[in-house]
Amino acid sequence: MIFYKLPTITKKIQRLYGRLKTLTKLASYKSRYIIQILDIEVKISRLKQMFQKPIKDNSPQKDTQKVWNQREYLKILEKEMIGNLARVDIKLILSEIINDSLSMLTDKGLIQRNLDGWYVKLRNGISATIKYMDIAIESLIRQKIVTYSE
């Protein structure tokens, strides 16, 4: 057993706390890019699934096939979105697919995916439609609408 003096242990703990604080700050700056990478991974897996399935263009129920594919896409997106929200410590309260949109109520606000993009409504009443999933999640984290430049 090794014994240390109390001031030595205190200095070591303060040094570790400083490192942890620095790493936490770096992680908060990089969260947007991590979510972007996760969004790209979702798109890649979705494309792989689409290429593996046979495409039926000659079916008489062409319009219903598109609706079914949209619902299937939303189900896949729902699973990935739940994982992404959990990674950034946002608690999911309710998630449901209504018609052609995915609606998720979280402890930070409401987020919906529809044909126009990601609709975000924060707890303070501010709302906006955002093009990308990572920016919508970042808006929930920061509790303000995050803008981006293309």
Number of domains: 1
User: Which stretches are poorly predicted, pLDDT < 50 over at least 5 residues?
Assistant: none
- What's the gyration radius in Å? 21 Å
Strand order of the largest sheet: 1-2-3-4-5
- The percent of residues in helical segments reads 55-70%
Based on DSSP secondary structure assignment, what is the total number of beta strands? 5
Largest sheet: 5 strands, antiparallel
User: What's the N-to-C terminus distance?
Assistant: 59 Å
CATH class: Alpha Beta
Structure explained in plain terms:
There is one protein chain. This protein is of the alpha+beta class. It has one domain (6-53, 60-142): Aspartate Aminotransferase, domain 1, CATH 3.90.1150. Helix content is 55%, strand content 19%. The protein is built from 3 helices and 5 strands. It has a 5-stranded antiparallel beta sheet with strand order 1-2-3-4-5, covered by helices on one side. A hairpin with a 2-residue loop joins β3 and β4. α1 runs antiparallel to α2 and α1 runs antiparallel to α3. The model has no long low-confidence stretch (mean pLDDT 76).
Set down the secondary structure blueprint.
Layout: H1 6-52, H2 62-87, E1 92-98, E2 101-106, E3 109-114, E4 117-122, E5 127-130, H3 133-142
Antiparallel strand pairs: 1-2, 2-3, 3-4, 4-5
Helix pairs in contact: 1-2, 1-3
